Amino acid sequence: MTKKNIVIQVLGPTGVGKSGTAVKLAQKINGEIISADSMQVYKHFDIGTAKISEQEKQNIPHFLIDILDDCSQFNASIFLEKSFEITQQIIARGHVPIVCGGTALYLRTMIKGIFPQNKEQKVSRDELKEIVNREGPLFLWNKLNDIDPGYAAKIGKNDTVRIIRAMEIYYNSGLPPSEIFKQTETPFKEFQFLRVGLNMERAHLYRRIEKRVDHMIEKGLVEEVKKLKTRCPLHCPPFKSVGYKEILLHLNQEIDLKTAVNLIKQHTRNFAKRQLSWFRQEKDIHWFDPGNYAEIEDFVLKQLT
Prior knowledge:
The chain has 14 helices and 6 strands. Helix 1 (about 20-30) packs across helix 14 and helix 6 crosses helix 8 (about 160-175). By secondary structure, the protein is α/β, with parallel strands linked by helices. The chain has helices spanning about 20-30, 55, 75-90, 105-110, 125-135, 135-145, 150-155, 160-175, 175-180, 200-220, 220-230, 245-250, 255-280, 295-305; strands at about 5-10, 30-35, 60-65, 95-100, 190-200, 285-290.
């Protein structure tokens, strides 16, 4: 494994300390950082996305932060294209690309690739969500089981997100999802990925999350959302994310601020659990406690040499 064809991923649940670890590594190994966060791409949404500050960057170049000034959709396909282009540029400078973030789909897409999508959408994801809301996930899972029993068994009857995605693929391509997944492509196929996972004892993580939410409120999250409401339409993707959607409820006088803050903490904890569930399915991640940074650095340096 050489520096020329290696990409480091620093991943883990929200609030665990990924950004700080990535910056330390970048300083040690001459790295540059690519953000894998689906919300930090949007300008002006700063406090609620826990965007890294200029001081925290420690003069390390960061990419894919603040790249969208409108509310256009950012997705895994766009991330894959842009992250590959930036990776090539980083390597051409003789530096090491470090991808840092918790958007699990983006991180997996770099390795596994993405399948070619049909431009013509016969059935939308929102339509399928309505079916699930009306009939329950088992209704769609049974249909998936009829056309692709192997994949249906793999994802289970309660994984609503994947059931909807699978049926969206089928209705728009006419092929079972497992057949489509065989056609996946990634421009990173010549690269090797060194995956550094960060995790800590659950109670400690939850305390960190709660402190971070309190810090967001102290920094002015409510004021940020007030300003954003005047400059961005409410269909802007970050408004649907944890932190922003709860403060919007408060500003609409549907809940008081204390309730909004408690909901942000609860929803963030739930999000962290979902992230960990996803990452645990991936067997190529090397896990560390972020408090043991020396172990992380030692591991990365050994792999690079």
